[in-house]
Write a structure and sequence with these properties.
heterodimer, A: alpha/beta, OB fold (Dihydrolipoamide Acetyltransferase, E2P), Rossmann fold, Ubiquitin-like (UB roll), 4-stranded antiparallel sheet, 28% helix, B: Ammonium transporter fold, globular
């Protein structure tokens, strides 16, 4: 099936053929933050000074469905230190000094995971530390566990928070056109689709999803994936991924279901559609079958010296990965994620976490600064907004602290894709205004209740 | 590498490279053919009017920004564009003091009083022109037949719209539509160079700086309204082609009505804006005391822009599809 469902957004260049995946050797020292995605941080389950093996649980998820954290190298836990996150919070992190042996915990393989009950599978996913990444990074067990809770419960905002999952959509390409880790991973899958198959079936068993959709870039060639979809009667969607942000969760949700999702508060999956990346599905399969936890991560490093896809252990310092990618120029900006939606950080001295899908490095002369000229009302932003908002007006409301007007103009539906900021001739920092408005409104709401 | 060297910001970390000056600088560029035609026709007088208008607009903007304690930003070119558009609407021998008064009033009252670039509800050039037009002692200078009486450019030196007003469409035998389109008519310095203005306008659309909706719908509006009048009485009213190739319609469609901040920002708003501008233009040409109605039509419709901006696509969130509505009803029925 080839549908062009996307009429707005912006055209960005996209590399057609991703390179090979390079493996970065396990580092001598890793830092593993206890915070993974939104929600409370995990609780350490080991003592300082204890020896750990690769894959051993070192921290347990805080709630019933919070993801566990595992040692990514073998060695000794030496300290718990503070780590500054790019979003401004400070989080405790476990430090492991490696012994260089890279010994793994004993495997505990279950060859027929699909016989297990959904609850058991959910627990394996939670123990495997699988994270659903995206604009609202969360433990996967929390996301799909929530969907299974009884219907009809209303949140204080009045929208239903729990709906059964009807559709699962699997992305085979990164939503930010400058990242290509997922495309590289898809290329390596080739015809070995057993794990993909298993992962999808595990998720379908847990959530009771009726339909599975594979979403591919129309330049991607994945005969194995096509065959799997054919055999199991899954639908395959080809989209023009250069048309940003057509691979973001709300857009994919709209494409697979034909319905327009409620994007407010980032809860797209509550519309009954679960949008996952292919690596999450593979991690799910490994967690359910081999009980192998998530200890490494595929990331794209985009820089002046070119881009590459690397597989590195969690907790590897980003500076190591950047130097492995051949970055030598003077860096002016470090972005964790892609250049459109990524989060800028003030230092490369930060470990690789499960939330990071890529690093984009800008040289000093490539850094674009917000000019924040007055809005001239040209309407370019309204033309590209995938949610059909009027970003120019919203940014003016937020600039002059008219938070209530902004809320009336559906500020909370903004998915912060950055299209408006990309096209704005006045160089306004549109996303900053939106984020500021949202946090102001949320803090007033919190103080009122 | 020191931590302080790194920039931190929200996304997007890339930018298309578009600048606020693109619009004004390209407008100046697009109007060069019309200016050249005006200079060729009317000589040094036209140069004087254009120079006076542009200079006084820029000086007024800079002075006003200094007085108001705002950053001086005449380099963005918007004041120059306003001055130039004003000059192109005027006859070549408008006295300099009138030009200065018009452009200073246009810039100060029409723009900076409302907060400067981006906040002006009306196009400054049009405000300046309207002030001259409705000021009684000066109105004679804007009457092209009187103002340009000393020129003989080798074609009929009667202002076509004034002829239409005086003697109906039967008086238009002398005018050849193709000649009018080539700019062989009296009128504003640049506004009468129809073909040059059209070329400049198409350039702006090709560069993506002017959206096609407003110009196209403006011309459509003119065609629709003039056809309607023609249906009523074809002897008294001129046809659509004559209306399009005379007076300020072409410059109005491409340059006057497309001023960013005094035009709607959504597609259907633009369509309605353009159609109304075009139709009101013809209505004013037929029924008002003024021969041409473009400027007043644009000014009038600009006042409706906040209303037209409400003609926008519904954001994704607030439009439940039919399936969602049915499901909600079913769920509600089941629970009760």
């Amino acid at each position: 099936m080839d549908i062009s469902f996307f009429s707005r957004g912006i055209k960005l260049s996209r590399r057609v053929k991703p390179g090979k995946i390079e493996r970065i050797p396990p580092p001598g020292r890793v830092v593993l933050p206890l915070q993974q995605g939104s929600g409370p941080p995990a609780e350490p389950s080991i003592e300082i000074g204890e020896a750990v093996k690769v894959g051993q649980t070192i921290a347990r998820g805080a709630s019933n469905s919070g993801a566990d954290l595992h040692a990514s190298i073998s060695g000794e836990v030496t300290a718990i230190e503070d780590l500054h996150f790019p979003n401004g919070t400070t989080v405790k992190a476990l430090v492991i000094e490696g012994d260089g042996k890279d010994t793994w915990v004993e495997p505990d393989r279950d060859d027929k995971p699909l016989i297990a009950s959904p609850g058991e599978l959910l627990e394996r996913i939670r123990c495997g530390g699988v994270i659903r990444e995206g604009s609202d990074t969360k433990s996967l067990a929390e996301v799909i566990g929530e969907a299974m809770s009884p219907r009809g419960y209303l949140s204080p905002t009045g929208s239903a928070v729990a709906k059964p999952v009807r559709h699962i959509a699997v992305r085979f390409s990164d939503q930010d056109p400058h990242l290509d880790a997922l495309a590289a991973l898809t290329a390596t899958i080739g015809d070995e689709t057993a794990e993909l198959d298993l992962g999808v079936k595990v998720l379908a068993t847990i959530t009771g999803a009726e339909q599975i959709h594979f979403v591919l870039d129309n330049k991607q060639e994945a005969p194995g994936v096509d065959k799997l979809a054919d055999d199991n009667d899954y639908s395959v969607l080809h989209v023009d991924a250069a048309n940003y942000p057509c691979l973001s969760s709300p857009m994919v949700a709209r494409a697979v279901s034909g319905k327009e999702p409620d994007t407010a508060f980032k809860r797209v999956h509550e519309n009954g559609i679960l949008v996952l990346d292919v690596n999450t599905v593979l991690e799910t399969a490994l967690a359910a079958r081999d009980r192998r936890p998530v200890i490494s991560r595929l990331i794209t490093v985009g820089s002046l010296a070119g881009a590459g896809v690397f597989e590195a252990r969690l907790g590897t310092p980003l500076a190591d990965i950047a130097s492995a990618a051949g970055q030598k120029e003077k860096i002016g900006k470090v972005v964790l994620g892609g250049p459109m939606k990524g989060l800028a950080h003030h230092t490369l001295d930060f470990p690789l976490t499960k939330e990071i899908s890529g690093i984009t490095l800008f040289a000093q002369d490539q850094v674009t600064m917000a000019v924040n000229d007055p809005c001239v009302g040209c309407g370019l932003c309204a033309m590209v907004c995938p949610i059909r908002l009027t970003p120019g007006m919203l940014s003016r409301y937020c600039e002059f602290s008219s938070w209530d007007l902004a809320q009336e103009a559906h500020l909370f539906s903004c998915i912060e894709c950055g299209c408006c900021a990309y096209v704005c001739p006045a160089g306004r920092s549109m996303v900053q205004f939106m984020v500021q408005g949202k946090s102001e409104l949320l803090s007033t709401r919190r103080s009122e209740s | 590498m020191k931590a302080a060297d790194l920039t931190v910001s929200t996304g997007s970390h890339w930018h298309s490279g578009a600048r606020i000056t693109d619009f004004s600088y390209n407008t100046l560029l697009a109007l060069i053919p019309a200016i050249a035609m005006g200079l060729y026709r009317y000589g040094v007088c036209a140069a004087g009017v254009i120079g006076t208008a542009v200079a006084s607009a820029m000086i007024a903007e800079a002075a006003m920004q200094k007085i108001l304690g705002k950053p001086v930003r005449i380099a963005d070119g918007s004041a120059a564009v306003s001055g130039l558009l004003l000059a192109l609407l005027l006859p070549a021998n408008t006295p300099a003091y009138m030009v200065v008064v018009a452009s200073v009033i246009g810039i100060t009252i029409g723009k900076l009083c409302f907060g400067g670039l981006g906040a002006n509800p009306l196009s400054p050039a049009l405000v300046g022109w309207a002030v001259l037009r409705i000021t009684k002692p000066w109105a004679g200078y804007l009457d092209f037949d009187l103002a340009l009486i000393n020129y003989d450019l080798g074609f009929s030196m009667q202002y076509p719209l004034a002829v239409l007003k005086a003697s109906g469409s039967s008086g238009l035998q002398d005018f050849n539509t193709w000649n009018l389109f080539l700019g062989n008519q009296t009128g504003g310095i640049g506004a009468s160079a129809i073909v040059c203005v059209l070329g400049g306008g198409l350039y702006m659309i090709a560069r993506g700086l002017v959206r096609w909706e407003i110009p196209l719908c403006f011309l459509l509006g003119v065609i629709i309204a003039s056809c309607l009048f023609r249906l009523v009485d074809s002897a008294a009213y001129a046809g659509p082609l004559f209306h399009i190739v005379t007076g300020n319609v072409m410059i109005g469609a491409f340059f006057l009505s497309t001023d960013n901040s005094s035009a709607p920002i959504n597609r259907w708003g633009m369509v309605a804006f353009g159609l109304c501008c075009g139709m009101i233009t013809v209505v004013l040409r037929v029924w008002s005391v003024y021969p041409d109605g473009v400027v007043f039509a644009c000014l009038l419709m600009s006042l409706f822009v906040p209303l037209l901006d409400k003609l926008k696509a519904t954001p994704i969130v607030v439009r439940p599809t039919r399936a969602q509505i049915t499901r909600k009803t079913v769920e509600g029925g089941a629970s009760s």
